[in-house]
Specification:
By secondary structure, this protein is mainly α. Helix 1 packs antiparallel against helix 2. The protein is elongated, with a radius of gyration of 17 Å. The two termini are 25 Å apart.
């Protein structure tokens, strides 16, 4: 059972890193600083923001799980 828990955390970490990298790449590709205001943000910019939001959610989830796993048991 402990092996499955560790495996699940590793899969979540890999998904978190993947969403983070794709999010950063989407934001970098989708933002055009020298275009006019109507064409400054591409669709990939908003997809990148969604990827970064998923990254932040997974990071919060994993941080909470690891904090509970390594914290001292309460009385």
């Amino acid at each position: 059972m402990k092996v499955l828990r560790i495996f699940g955390i590793l899969v979540a970490v890999l998904a978190m890193v993947g969403f983070g990298l794709c999010g950063v790449l989407g934001v970098m590709i989708g933002f055009r600083p020298y275009a006019d205001a109507a064409n400054m943000f591409d669709e990939t910019f908003f997809m990148g923001l969604a990827g970064l939001a998923i990254f932040a959610t997974l990071a919060w989830f994993l941080g909470r799980k690891l904090y509970r796993a390594f914290s001292a048991p309460g009385k």
